[in-house]
Design a protein that fits this description.
Elements (H helix, E strand, L loop, with lengths): L3 H13 L3 H22 L10 H14 L10 H25 L11 H12 L6 H15 L4 H11 L4 H8 L3 H16 L1
Helix pairs in contact: 1-2, 2-3, 2-4, 3-4, 6-7, 8-9
């Protein structure tokens, strides 16, 4: 019966020489450890975004891309520790990227319903469109054309955006008078 460390060294040599069968043997032997390391390291917020096998595949891809580094491992436990550390690092990099960068931060993600509500709120402009303003001004001008001068002045100041109090102060009338005139003219425009 061959010694376990001899079997390990032989496996490493075969992988370095490009043996696909040896590579699959390595994946079979250490795959579950790598997967467990990924699962333990993967943040709960990211579990819906990533399958743990994505990270496991990244670990194996990195390892097999640089097969020459396998010469540094003399014992199976050394390789296992290296693979677990690599898995944690790959998950950690993605966790940092997804939780602390502005572009990919999952904490700033919104559900589709939240986004739709936000878009609807953005779509409602607090200001009427210019055409509606123009129509309203034209309507007010028609209403006030046969009214006394001080009525026209009240309407003009209100259309400029003055408050009732500002209109009253400027024209030397009571605020209630300014309100009453505009209400009366508004009722007349409906009829």
């Amino acid at each position: 019966m061959p010694r376990p460390d001899f079997d390990f060294r032989d496996l490493m040599d075969q992988i370095r020489n490009g043996s696909e069968e040896a590579a699959w043997d390595l994946v079979d032997r250490y795959g579950e450890r790598v997967r467990r390391a990924v699962r333990r390291s993967l943040n709960h917020q990211l579990r819906s975004k990533f399958d743990s096998m994505d990270f496991v595949q990244l670990v194996w891809s990195s390892l097999f891309r640089t097969r020459k580094q396998l010469t540094r491992f003399d014992q199976p436990d050394e390789l296992a520790a290296f693979l677990v550390t690599m898995a944690r690092n790959k998950v950690g990099m993605e966790v940092r990227r997804r939780l602390s960068t502005e572009k990919y931060n999952v904490n700033k993600e919104q559900s589709l319903e939240e986004r739709r509500a936000e878009v609807r709120m953005d779509a409602v402009d607090p200001q009427p469109p210019p055409i509606e303003v123009a129509i309203a001004r034209e309507r007010w001008h028609r209403i006030v054309e046969n009214q006394p001068e001080h009525y026209r002045k009240i309407v003009e100041l209100r259309l400029r955006g003055n408050t009732y109090q500002e209109i009253a102060d400027e024209l030397g009338i009571a605020e209630s008078t300014a309100r009453r005139v505009l209400q009366r003219l508004s009722r007349e425009s409906v009829v």
